[in-house]
Amino acid sequence: MDCLFCKIIAGEIPSTKVYEDEFVYAFNDIAPQAPIHVVIVPKEHLQSANDINEENCALIGKIFNAASKIAKELGISENGYRIVNNCGADGGQTVGHIHFHMLGGRSLAWPPG
Ligand code: AMP
Ligand code: ZN
């Protein structure tokens, strides 16, 4: 499949791995928007949040379980962080493999732009 994140998961495109388990892969974003910017993806290819359904929604729990571990590992769990999913054109999604941004290491403004 011609998918950037599937290739990263398969190791065909290099990435800086932060976390991996049976269901989830996480790596440093190539263009970090905060001191900590990790991209967390399910190994299963889903295009976007629109593809979450009754059958596969447990995968999203796996993502957040991984996020909780990563936050502790990277030392941002106490100060806090933000997890963002961009969905579709208006959401700002540029890679068509569902992913969650973990941003931390600085105070983040709200609302987003
Ligand atoms: P989004 O704009 O929400 O679709 O997020 C895609 C993210 O993937 C962006 O933050 C990019 O900087 C990041 N990205 C694109 N290519 C790579 C890559 N080869 N390695 C790591 N992160 C990447
Ligand atoms: Zn993919």
Structure description:
Strands 1-2-3-5-4 form a five-stranded antiparallel β-sheet, covered by helices on one side. A hairpin with a 7-residue loop joins strand 2 and strand 3 (about 35-40). The protein is built from three helices and five strands. The protein is about 25% helix and about 20% strand. The chain is globular, with a radius of gyration of 14 Å. The chain starts with a helix and ends in a 9-residue tail after the last strand. Bound molecules: adenosine monophosphate and zinc ion. Zinc ion binds next to helix 1.
Summarize this, please?
It is built from 3 helices and 5 strands. With 113 residues, the chain is of the alpha+beta class. Strands 1-2-3-5-4 form a 5-stranded antiparallel sheet, covered by helices on one side.
* Spatial arrangement of strands, main beta sheet: 1-2-3-5-4
The total beta strand count reads: 5
CATH topology: the name is HIT family, subunit A
CATH-scheme architecture:
2-Layer Sandwich
Report the bound ligands by name, code or SMILES: adenosine monophosphate, zinc ion
What is the rounded distance between the termini? 32 Å
Strand content: 15-25%
Radius of gyration: 14 Å
Structural shape: globular
Q: In total, how many domains does the architecture comprise?
A: 1
